[in-house]
Amino acid sequence: MRFLTVTPNPSVDHTVELDTLTRGEVHRATAGSVEAGGKGVNVARVLARHGHEATAVLPSGGVDGDRLETLLAPQRVRAATVAIAGSIRTNTTIVERDGTTTKLNEPGPELGPQDLDALQRSVSDELQRAPDWFVSSGSLPPGAPADLHARFVRTARGLGVRCAVDTSGAALAAAVDAGPDVLKPNEDELAELLGRELHTVGDVVAAAGELRSRGVGEVLVSLGGAGALLVGAQGTVWAGGRSLVPLSTVGAGDCTLAGFLHATGSPAQRLATAVAWGRAAVLLPGSSVPAAPETSAAAAAVRTLDDPHPDTLVKDLQR
Ligand SMILES: Nc1ncnc2c1ncn2[C@@H]1O[C@H](COP(=O)(O)OP(=O)(O)O)[C@@H](O)[C@H]1O
Ligand SMILES: O=P(O)(O)OC[C@H]1O[C@](O)(COP(=O)(O)O)[C@@H](O)[C@@H]1O
């Protein structure tokens, strides 16, 4: 299949591994790594590793822009870079020995009107090539309008291209009303969007139902160690597996969405693939994305459940 992604706020992902993080202390890291990052970039990377044609549209500028392009070059992703005046960001992740992951995401460069025009032109040009899926992902940098993902989705839908969105905050709220085919919030992002806490399966299903009534096709809610729930026209499915000690959870959500779009079959089959790709990602260090042998191995441990009981607590789903 052919995929197009856009990442308005890509990053160089710097991961530092250490024993235990203590605020205010000097730490000696046990390992460190640097990778090309940002949500749409990661979606493109993992799809390319699974043999798909993946194009990633991204702004690039400054020393970190050069670094990101260098890191992306060997990864079989076709990078459609848009030169911007500012320098792209570095995001830092601290992973402790027990798998606890702390992310420090920079705001990113200010995008001026010319940068935004160039980015929108690049997305429109790439959409003319009629990809099978378009993925609009990640936070928005300063200067970008909150409805940037929504604008991309409307352009894609106008051209008949199926689209998925993974973002947060005001950008997520704006994207809902553009009616993407797939929306992938995590539990916290969904709770923030609806302005209420989500404790049970019923809470999540009701929240997802509200988004569907506003025009979203399928809502794929990732739940960290508790797997994921898919709410769509055919009902609700859960998929997950036994608990894992993550090496790094960075990129797990991106791999989950990529697996979902890669898969075919019933909602349960597509969700099981999504969860397998997410679980394979957490077993890799830093922002590394899994290859086919790793996602196939992870798939063997995933189980699914149709219509999980609405009173079940989300945190109890994997038991
Ligand atoms: N601690 C964990 N144990 C097992 N699987 C995990 C863990 N954290 C994440 N995953 C897998 O990765 C997926 C995405 O993780 P999640 O944290 O929900 O996404 P995001 O990175 O978007 O916040 C989950 O649905 C799950 O399959
Ligand atoms: O755009 P945001 O929300 O700041 O997120 C960017 C960060 O998220 C990642 O794309 C990882 O995302 P997930 O862990 O949600 O899959 C990193 O590569 C990047 O540093």
TrEMBL record:
Which first-to-last residue range defines the signal peptide? none
What InterPro entries is this protein classified in? Answer: 1-PFruKinase, Carboh/pur_kinase_PfkB_CS, PfkB_dom, Ribo/fructo_kinase, Ribokinase-like, Tagatose/fructose_Pkinase
Per its record, the protein catalyses: beta-D-fructose 1-phosphate + ATP = beta-D-fructose 1,6-bisphosphate + ADP + H(+)
Coiled-coil stretches are none
User: Per the database record, which ranges form the Carbohydrate kinase PfkB domain?
Assistant: 9-278
For the keyword Nucleotide-binding, the answer is yes
- Identify this protein by name: 1-phosphofructokinase
Species in which this protein is naturally found? Kineococcus rhizosphaerae
